[in-house]
Every structure is written in C-alpha cells, then in structure tokens.
Automatic annotation (TrEMBL):
Origin: domain of life: Bacteria
UniProtKB keywords: Membrane, Transmembrane, Transmembrane helix
Pfam families xref list: DUF4199
Full protein name: DUF4199 domain-containing protein
Residue spans crossing the bilayer: 15-37, 43-65, 77-99, 172-193
InterPro entries given in the database record: DUF4199
The keyword Membrane appears for this protein: yes
Length: 199
C-alpha cells in the first residue's frame, strides 16, 4: 500500500484557499457588525480570534483528512503558519477597505469610546490608590482636583502613545502582526495533535 505524498505546493494551495476564505468571512463579519451597531466594544476582537483559529484548524485538518499518512509535525505547523499569514494579508486589506471606505468615522468613534473607558479605569485606580492611604473613617472622600489632574495628564500621555493604533495604517499593520503571532501560537498545539501516527 503506497502512502499519500503531501508536497509543499499542496500545503501552500490549501493554506491560501482556506486563509482567503476565512479572510473574506472576517471582512463580511466586521462589516455586518458595524451595520448592526455592534462595532464598538469587544465583539470585533472575537470575530478576529474566531477567523484565525478557524483558518488554522480548517487548513491542518483538511490536509490531515486528505493525506492521513503524509502529515508530519513540520508540515502541519507550516500549514498553520501559511494559513495565518494569508489571513493576515486579508485582514490588512480589510483594514484599508473597512476603515478607509465603509466606516471612515469608525476609528474616531472607537478612539472616543476607548478614551472614555480608559478614563473610568484610571479614575477607579486613582480612587483606590488615594483611599488606601487614608484613615478608615475617611475612605468615603471624593477625588480631589489634584487627583483629577493626575488622571487627565496620565490619560493624555496614554492617548498620545496609542495614536498610531487609531489610524488606518496602524490597524492594518496590527492586524497582520497579530495574525502572525496567533499563527505561531495556535498552530503549535493543532499541528501536534494532528500528526500522522506511526504504525
């Protein structure tokens, strides 16, 4: 009985196909969520995570089913990395299309949303820090003007440091980098679990 031979070209073809398919699904997903008014918040991050994990699992499992005796750990891991790389390119393109054409005001709205949430977190942190230094009977004291100034200066510095994140090119580059990093991490256990068993 001859073993199925899995070439690198077949791996690249499968990774490109399923990476592109999930990349298109990612783009459609974030667009529909935006139109449904669910764009702000953590929902889009979940679409991203699901797309990466799906691309890697589908690619490795499809190869495992087609070539049950020819999928080594190296080939499975490489397939996962290729799929996440292709998906990363689709996510990069999606960022330019989505933030530049479909939702040009989205990043400004998201920046304001992020800034409000970050401000609340910083005020809560400052309040806890201030009250930890007070006597027990004084713990109900409200934040002073000095506390507010500390928070506002810290918030301004933080927003200056994250300005690139709220640009179209920043989102495109971050999508690509995150996809590659997730590919490195997620592909490892999936590749290990899908290795061909030696008889």
């Amino acid at each position: 009985m001859t073993k199925n031979v899995l070439s690198w070209g077949q791996i690249a073809k499968q990774a490109a196909y399923l990476g592109s398919l999930t990349g298109l699904g990612y783009f459609v997903g974030i667009t529909l969520m935006h139109w449904a008014g669910m764009g702000l918040g953590d929902w889009i991050n979940w679409v991203y995570r699901i797309a990466v994990i799906t691309a890697i699992i589908w690619t490795i499992m499809a190869l495992r089913l087609r070539y049950p005796n020819g999928l080594s750990f190296l080939k499975a891991y490489s397939a996962g990395l290729m799929a996440s790389s292709v998906l990363g390119l689709w996510m990069l393109i999606s960022a330019f299309l989505f933030y530049g054409q479909i939702a040009p005001d989205y990043l400004k709205e998201y920046e304001a949303f992020y800034q409000r949430n970050r401000e609340v977190q910083m005020y809560q942190t400052q309040y806890k820090k201030t009250n930890a230094e007070l006597e027990e009977e004084e713990t109900s004291r409200a934040l002073t003007a000095q506390d507010s100034l500390i928070v506002q200066k810290g918030l301004e510095k933080h927003m200056e440091g994250t300005a690139y994140f709220f640009s179209v090119s920043g989102q495109a580059v971050i999508n690509l980098i995150y996809s590659l990093v997730w590919g490195l991490l997620v592909s490892l256990p999936i590749a290990y679990m899908s290795m061909s068993k030696k008889e």
